[in-house]
Amino acid sequence: MFLSRTLRAAALALPVFAAAASAGGCSSDVNPLKAAFTGADSRPVTAPDFVAGSRRSDADYMPVGESAPRRTIRARNAAGQSALEAELEGARNRNQAKGRAAEGAAKDAAKGLAPNPVQ
Predict the structure, then answer these.
(1) DSSP one-letter string for the chain
(2) Which residue, 45, 41, 24, is CA-closest to 33?
(3) Assuming Cys at both sites, which of 26, 47, 73, 104 could form a disulfide with 51, CB separation 3.0 to 4.6 Å?
(4) Phi and psi for 35 in degrees, rounded to 5?
(5) Per-residue pLDDT tens digits for 90-114
(6) How far apart are CA 94 and CA 84, in angstroms?
(7) Is residue 3's pLDDT more than 90?
(8) Taking the CA atoms of the chain, what radius of gyration do you get in angstroms?
């Protein structure tokens, strides 16, 4: 009984292991066969001309593993705060007016229609 459970567990685990191994085998950075045949000191691959030509020469790339520097956000002064409030209030009023217009148009369109009878 113990042996049959062990064989059953191994039979269930084998397809999972095979799928994981084959997926890892397709990855170029984890492929042990590629490392065995090319060796650890394989030459670096240079970028094709169209890739090298499309890159900016003054590009300042951030190293891998470092976080982007945080920008400091300054609070608004009183004039900026009141201007923002006025802008948001105006947007709210415009949206409410559009809603009232749409509601009125829907009521006008439904004036001659009779409600659906319940079947």
Answers:
(1) -HHHHHHHHHHHHHHHHHHHHHHHHH-TTT-HHHHHHH-TTPPPPPPPHHHHHHS-TT--PPPTTPPPPPPP-PPP-HHHHHHHHHHHHHHHHHHHHHHHHHHHHHHHHTTTPPPPPP-
(2) 24
(3) 47
(4) -65, -35
(5) 999 999 999 999 999 988 888 878 7
(6) 15
(7) no
(8) 34
User: CA dihedral in degrees (101, 103, 106, 110; nearest 10)?
Assistant: -130
Residue 65 is predicted with a pLDDT of 85
Does residue 12 carry a pLDDT above 80? no
pLDDT in tens, 31-84: 666 666 666 656 677 888 888 888 877 777 777 888 888 888 888 899 999 999
Q: What angle do CA 101, 105, 110 make, to 5 degrees?
A: 150
Residue type, 90: G
Chain centroid, CA 86 distance in Å: 34
Cα separation, 113 vs 62, in Å, equals 65
